[in-house]
UniProtKB/TrEMBL annotation:
Ranges of residues in domain Peptidoglycan binding-like: 213-268
Superkingdom assignment: Bacteria
SUPFAM superfamilies assigned to the protein according to its UniProt record, in alphabetical order: Hedgehog/DD-peptidase, PGBD-like
Species of the source: Crinalium epipsammum PCC 9333
InterPro entries: Peptidoglycan-bd-like (IPR002477), PGBD-like_sf (IPR036365), PGBDSf (IPR036366), VanY-like_core_dom (IPR003709), Zn_M74/Hedgehog-like (IPR009045)
Domain D-alanyl-D-alanine carboxypeptidase-like core, first and last residues per copy: 55-127
Lineage of source species: Bacteria, Bacillati, Cyanobacteriota, Cyanophyceae, Gomontiellales
GO MF annotation list: peptidase activity
Protein known as: Peptidoglycan-binding domain 1 protein
Length: 271
């Protein structure tokens, strides 16, 4: 386990496990707060986390449609963990980072900012669709300033506080969304790979009593999408779902045991 304070890799991709947990937790606190942007006509680098707040995605969609070409994005959303990593690199003079705000203070933490290639080519399409250029000192950076943009700082901090408290019941943090010393010092000790045992999907299978839940519903829809005949997506793991899982596993040359663990989830595109 690598703690955030000990990460030596320069790419923010090294905190992706923790990032994913933070994003999932934020969307649990406020459903659909963050939405994926990789469905748009964009090219994203590996380290780019493809999420923005919903109003910013609309802002982006309009601008891309206005210019009618693909946008190359170098940075979009940064969780407070990714921002902490950049801030540490800046403070210690590593990785060529010459400026970085503390977590929560960058507009990238608000999921309403982008850094892009060809910033001047995009300027008129962006500025006529709710984006504002930051300035020539940060020439790739634009912020969506649409009226529907909300401040998500508190929720992003709260998500971390909740994850920390779930994972360390003996060292709980107040769930107040306040990025004070108690929270910032613990962020340094968060595991870059994510908190172990938190948010790991349960194994789905035929049990007595039957498993019921949104995760079963998602499984059923994924099976249907994979071309498996399943007559009802009723969120109940019954014998029909069991057979459908086995049919899918057989088609994929997997062990047809009807148990949906990580391997089957991956094959279904669920993780
Ligand atoms: Zn930027």
């Amino acid at each position: 386990m690598t703690l955030l304070k000990d990460v030596t890799d320069c790419s923010t991709y090294s905190v992706r496990g923790l990032d994913n947990q933070l994003i999932a937790q934020m969307n649990k606190i406020r459903p659909n707060l963050l939405v994926r942007i990789d469905s748009l006509n964009v090219e994203l680098g590996q380290a780019v986390h493809p999420w923005m707040q919903a109003a910013a995605k609309k802002c982006l969609e309009r601008a891309i449609a206005a210019r009618g070409q693909q946008m190359i994005i170098n940075s979009a959303y940064r969780t407070i963990a990714a921002q902490m990593l950049l801030f540490l690199q800046y403070k210690t003079g590593r990785c060529g980072i010459t400026a970085a705000s503390p977590p929560g203070n960058s507009n990238h933490n608000n999921a309403s900012a982008i850094d892009i290639e060809d910033p001047y080519g995009w300027r008129s399409a962006l500025e006529s669709n709710g984006w504002r250029k930051l300035g020539d000192w940060d020439r790739m950076h634009y912020d969506c300033v649409d009226n529907n943009i909300q401040s998500i700082k508190e929720i992003s901090v709260q998500a971390f506080q909740q994850l920390w408290s779930m994972s360390r019941p003996n060292d709980k943090l107040a769930d107040d969304g306040d990025y004070g010393p108690a929270t910032s010092s613990r962020l340094l000790y968060a595991p870059a790979e994510g908190f172990p045992g938190v948010g790991i999907p349960r194994v789905l299978k035929l049990t007595e009593p039957l498993q019921i839940g949104n995760d079963v519903g998602e499984l059923q829809l994924a099976l249907r999408k994979a071309g498996i005949d399943i007559d009802k997506a009723d969120k109940v793991f019954g014998t029909g779902t069991d057979l459908a899982v086995k049919e899918f596993q057989t088609a994929k040359n997997m062990v047809a045991d009807g148990i949906v663990g990580s391997g089957t989830r991956k094959a279904l595109g669920l993780e």
